[in-house]
Amino acid sequence: MTAQNDTVKIHGNVQDSVISPNVQKSRLNYKSLIIPAAFIGYGVASLTVKDLKQLNFSTRDEINEHRPDHIKLDNFTQYAPAVLVYGLNAAGIKGKHNFRDRTVIYVTSQAISAAITLPLKHLVKEERPDESNNLSFPSGHTAAAFSSAQFMFREYKDTNFWLSLSGYPIAVFTGVYRMLNDKHWVGDVVAGAGFGILSTELAYWLFPKINTMLGGKNKNASTMIMPFYQEKSLGIGLVKSF
């Protein structure tokens, strides 16, 4: 009985860390797939369509004429919109989901993005502009960045629309710098943006199903996902009560 009371107390005080009691069913909005489908279609077409391939080369030539400095900031900005979501929630600007639910959604979106982009790189085998390898298409950094930006949009679009859009400029910056760093063609970046948005849309659609699997049939069960740091190791812990 004592353990049960403690659990109820935790549930009442840490509302941003536990499972929501009522999870609405999510339907895949096909209109939301139009933009990512267009981006992906352009990227695929750029692999074979002469004019689009020429645009890849002419854009790279234009970039090389200005000889921009190569920076590694795009390695970090790809996750910046998602970090902003957690920071805003910590500051009291609540999004659509609590800590546990949005973490499940974000991890799912990144997993889907990686499951799409990594195999495609090895199947397409497009050479990078800098000729470092044949894993150019699509841009994984851009996919992660737009997945994060779409995540921020979905979390805040109903409560603060203009704030929800603030992740997209960061995602665009990431994609542009993949080209400035001579790692990707235009078509790679556009396709990556499409795959990133698509991944997040699929993650929100799949969330009720994943949530059911995590929560089981017991409606009183709750799950908490928390980061931890122990012995110089960073990880994520899963705590489940029944």
Can you tag this structure with a few keywords?
242 residues; mainly alpha; Vanadium-containing Chloroperoxidase, domain 1; two-stranded antiparallel ribbon; 10 helices; 2 strands; 61% helix; disordered N terminus
Outline of this structure?
The chain is mainly alpha-helical. The protein has helices at residues 2-13, 34-45, 50-66, 74-77, 80-90, 99-124, 140-156, 161-164, 167-180, 186-215, and strands spanning 222-230, 233-241.
**What is the overall shape?**
globular
Percent of sequence in beta strands:
5-15%
Proportion in helices: 55-70%
Number of distinct beta strands: 2
Poorly predicted ranges: 1-23, 228-234
> What's the end-to-end separation, in Å?
13 Å
Provide structural commentary:
The structure is a single chain. The chain is mainly alpha-helical and 242 residues long. It has a single domain, classed as Vanadium-containing Chloroperoxidase, domain 1 (Up-down Bundle). 61% of the residues lie in helices and 7% in strands. It contains 10 helices and 2 strands. Strands 1-2 form a two-stranded antiparallel sheet. The longest helix has 30 residues. The two termini are 13 Å apart. The N terminus is likely disordered.
